[in-house]
Design brief:
The protein has 302 residues and is an alpha+beta fold. It has 7 helices and 9 strands; from the N terminus they run H-E-E-E-E-E-E-E-E-E-H-H-H-H-H-H. The strands form 3 sheets. Strands 1-2-5-4-3 form a 5-stranded antiparallel β-sheet, with no helix packed on it. It has a two-stranded antiparallel ribbon with strand order 6-9. Strand 3 and strand 4 form a beta hairpin.
């Protein structure tokens, strides 16, 4: 029994090397010649989203064909690198077939610091069982953002509100200007208004001016103008006023002193129209209005 066991062990030890050599022989690329492998020209500074391309050229016998079913599928992602597409072309030349395979990858990995990635190793298989192993190709991925983001609040510079311009003086001047404008408007309104809002606006000559404005520009209207002005002087003087009373009138009421000469002229003209039979001129009514308005200014003391 011991001799049988020793004999079986010796047979196994002799047969094992032969079996291993057979297995290695099956995995060796038979009949495939790698003509060239062209990798991307740049291996550093690659960024997220970059497209990398590698081109492999192979030569096989004229009867052999590429097994495209064993090629990696489009969209396959391996360690942050996705295969976008594979382009295959071939040509026959001198009894052999040459294949050109273009692998196009896109980088989807990102990192806060430079890291090394690789285009994956590819296995290209033919129908005869021959294959070629394309080794991986390493490259450096450039960082997009720093590893640790620092909070922005400590670096924020405090902002201050700009100093307000002092406008107190401007506001005072605006207030004074507005007050002067209002007062001026009221003064002009009081001086020129024909209405009777206040008792002081309804003086003798103010009433006379309103009556003169309603008279027609006719001969009778101009005679009525002389009567209206005469009545206003009588009311203001307190009695029947004649031309000889003009000095006494302006002496008693000095506000009319600047118009003494115009008053005298009025009495001369009115006596000629009312008592001398002289026809008034066409401008007489307007002259009476002008004198009445001037006397109203004096009456209102503006």
């Amino acid at each position: 029994m011991k001799q049988i066991f020793l004999g079986w062990l010796a047979v196994c030890l002799i047969a094992m090397p032969a079996f291993a050599e057979t297995q290695v022989t099956k995995t060796q690329p038979v009949g495939v010649k790698v003509l060239s492998v062209q990798n991307p020209a740049t291996y550093a500074g690659i960024q997220l989203g970059d497209v990398l391309q590698r081109t492999v050229r192979l030569s096989v016998s004229g009867q052999d064909q590429l097994n495209e079913n064993d090629l990696p599928l489009k969209g396959l992602q391996r360690h942050g690198v996705e295969l976008r597409q594979v382009q295959v072309s071939n040509e026959s030349q001198a009894g052999e077939k040459r294949y050109t395979l273009v692998f196009e990858y896109q980088v989807f990995a990102s990192s806060g610091k430079p890291v090394q990635l690789q285009l994956p190793a590819e296995r290209i298989v033919f129908n005869s069982g021959a294959f070629a192993e394309i080794p991986a190709w390493r490259f450096w991925l450039m960082s997009q953002l720093p590893d640790r983001l620092q909070p922005a609040q400590p670096t924020v510079i405090a902002q201050y509100h700009p100093l307000l311009k002092k406008t107190d003086m401007i506001q005072r001047w605006l207030a004074v200007s507005l007050l002067l404008a209002v007062v001026g408007s009221l003064v002009l309104l009081y001086r020129n208004a024909d209405w009777r809002w206040l008792p002081i606006m309804n003086g003798d000559f103010a009433r006379a001016y309103r009556q003169l404005k309603r008279l027609p520009a006719t001969s009778d209207g101009q005679k009525q103008a002389a009567l209206v002005m005469q009545q206003a002087f009588n009311d203001r003087f307190g009695q029947q006023m004649l031309a000889s009373h003009v000095p006494a009138f302006v002496a008693e009421q000095p506000v009319f002193q600047p118009l003494e000469s115009q008053i005298k002229t009025f009495f001369v003209q009115s006596n000629a129209v009312l008592y001398g039979g002289q026809l008034p001129t066409a401008e007489y009514l307007q002259q009476c209005k002008t004198l009445a308005r001037q006397l109203r200014y004096c009456e209102r003391r503006v």
